Queue: 2 jobs
Job 1
Amino acid sequence: MPKFHSDIGLIGLAVMGQNLALNIADHGFQVSVYNRTTEKTAKFLAGNPATPGGLVGATTLQEFVRSLTRPRRIILLVQAGGPTDAVIDGLIPLLEQGDIIIDGGNAKWTDTIRREKALREKGLRFIGSGVSGGETGARFGPALMPGGDPAAYKELEPIWNAIAAKVDAKTGRPIPGAAPGIPVSGGVPCATYIGPDGAGHYVKMIHNGIEYGDMQMICEAYYLIRSLLGLKAEEIGAVFAEWNKGVLDSYLIEITADILQQKDPVTKSKALVDVILDTAGQKGTGKWTSVNALDMGVPAPTVAEAVFARCLSALKEERVAAAKILKGPAKKKYRGARTALIQAIHDALYCSKICSYAQGFQLMREAQKEYNWTLNFGAIAQIWRGGCIIRAGFLQKITEAYGRNPRLANLLLDPYFNKTVKGAQENWRKVVALAAQHGVAAPTFGSALAYYDGYRTARLPANLLQAQRDYFGAHTYERVDQPRGKFFHLDWPEPARPQIQA
Ligand code: NBP
């Protein structure tokens, strides 16, 4: 017997909405659902007649809103951008003071800041929540990154905690075992209040930027093994399966091992990966991360390189034409030991990954100043351990690093990461050099190494840069022998300028 009023409502029954509604209902909450195209609602309800909490369909927004217990909690899982605004505009006249709208889409954090403010002024409450883990995550336990009104989140928290992925309290390891109708029990939920207004969606964007970096780095490792050692896809898959047992243990390494061992269902003899066209798409969160890094002046080159690598891959016809004209080094087979090179590529991947995450966390550190948030970096790394695409054993090391020092300036400075990079950097440098010598593009490996070397350098060549800027633009410079903030200028065009030779 359905309850008269549902516990929560959900608008948008595409992939994410359907799966999240089922996940919520699995946990005993009655969910009212609404979709603009009503046939989808009918089909969804017909396909899921018996869930523990129950699903209630509505064909109009009015009927949907009336079906909810007050204060109403309404999740939006519609296309980000204009469609999200359109749905909010449709809801506003139907809602009452204190009702809560939760945007679970991939909204840009600045949109979430704007929407939260506009709704607050109308007496409505707004939560922008990152939802990570794709279709399977939404169904069986995503990582959830809610931001907005903290009191409103308190009213959502029991549901968010119930449906989130769970990790072991001591080890941080994901707890597997969810199945339709049988939710995971025990463990720490991969959901935590991130901060006010757009904080949740900001952290979700950084998650996605890091995901871009991780994926590209894995591709570079695969490509280097293939190019230098000539291993077949399934052999490289076996290497990744082995790597997944160590420090690189992660969802993305695990699926890569699986992908590389998949045969093509059409030719039946080739590896599937060998018949997939080498042009990558993107939806924009990596670009947002990189643009935001440039806007805030935070060095985050590794994610940007991953975005550019996708852009370069998309120039397929140009690349095919250029391949006939532009020559690289003469093709030479790598003559060293195979096992040692595979270990070196493993180390290059791990060191590059550490730098990429260091950059992501530096971005969040700067954003919290910019937007007046107080972010808990250890907790953010902890909720990424389960449910989401970048889930990895390595994140526990980040939680531990921020546990040791919550004000850590850069992950690289933490003793564990410092020691790890110190021990592995010889291999990392060898791989970047080999890539250059053999003409194999490895942009994230190379940029991460340049980031590491730049960050650990006390005196960079920016002294010369400042002199150049002063020369043509009178931009002034500071001196090493004077206090910071004191600026000097040399009248370069003046014929009588001091002619003291260096
Ligand atoms: P889509 O992003 O493809 O959005 C489709 C939904 O938006 C449908 O329910 C559609 O209704 C509705 N919609 C649109 Br389009 N315009 C609308 C409008 N003007 N008014 C009302 N409804 C409208 O769905 P998705 O892939 O399930 O993703 C949902 C959200 O979750 C997005 O923000 C996405 O970025 C985010 N996300 C997706 C993933 C993923 O793996 N797919 C992961 C994490 C987050 P209709 O049926 O009537 O067309």
Job 2
Amino acid sequence: MARHLQWKNLVIDQILRTKRDGHALSTSQIDSFVAGVVSGSVSRPQAASLLACIFIRGMNDAESIALTRAMTDSGPKLSWPGIDGPFVDKHSTGGVGDKVSLVLAPLWAELGIRVPMISGRGLGHTGGTLDKLEAIPGYRCDLDDEALHRVLREVGCFISGQTAALAPADRILYALRNETQTVECIPLIVASILSKKLAEGLDRLVLDVKVGTGAFMKTVGDARTLAEAMVRVGNGSGVSTRALLTDMSQPTGEACGNAIEVMEAVDCLQGRGPADLRALTLALCDHPDAERVLDSGAAFERFARMARAQGGDLTRLTAETKRWELRAESDGFVTRCDAWNIGRAAFVAGAGRLRAEDPVDPAVGVMVHHKVGDHVSRGEPLATLWHRDRAVDEARRELLLAFAVSEVAPARVPLLIGTVEPTAG
Ligand code: URA
């Protein structure tokens, strides 16, 4: 075996033994591992083995910061020469009906903040921002670096997909984590999410960490642990990072699908729409003029400009489907409006996908008419399934499970559960 290959094997052997035995990896060990994953000199079994060791042994903050930086730097970072910042983005850990990015990006842009938003597709019961935007006929989510730069310069924001060059280590490691049951591991999640965000060339990042049945994190404790780790690693990587913990026990807003979520985002951008969507957007925006700008309609104009610059024609946005209504069987208060079941109903009707390469149906979804705490009369619609005859029985079953009505009024569910700010020092 050539000498340099022998040396490389010794390095990866030592890295594996270090983490296997519960010790911290050095920054240079982490750099060698990530570089080797991308070049192919670290084999897939070796990489999978280290992921399993990290899953079991964990990582301290210094290791997490080093892993995030190495993954960020595994491809060229985006940069914005000739455009004045600040450059700011938001990341949500994902939920049902979460169309906040569609409102927040143009709102921030209208407030003079530049938003280079690289977003993802939906998997399972949660929707993806790109799938929603692609419900706008012609909207392109595959902009190259030159187009990203042009749209950011001309409009002040873009929402597009990950380019092949952006944080390539994450693509390889995420696929391996899916194959090896090592996804649910805080340092690996933090590095995966933040490497893609930090490669956008940001000054500031706001995280929306969702909690509840429809979220990745089901308990406040788990969500806080993830949020605190992301805030420490984000700030430790030189990007001012804060997090909100927000409710995902029921959907955000009323629309859960693709085209219907864009329509609801447009309402919100024009100062209308559901109160919770508006409140969440304003909390994440964190700007004294945000309400005034939303109400003025200027953020909507900005959104329309972004859509046009990315090839989309908002005037052709439609969702023509059959409808089925779930109606309350008695008078009373809604005590359950479950994000997981509602997300599942939209998913089985075709709004979501199981594998990244599967298509989604832009038109179908669920429109929620009442949330927890609302009073309803017998026969009043609780939700409407927008469908095209796909898996209708299963979607109806999910909607039946999603709702409960009782004579006793429940406590209202708070939307904002907490915040995680950077610690001084
Ligand atoms: N989303 C990501 O991008 N990475 C993870 O590890 C989990 C969620």
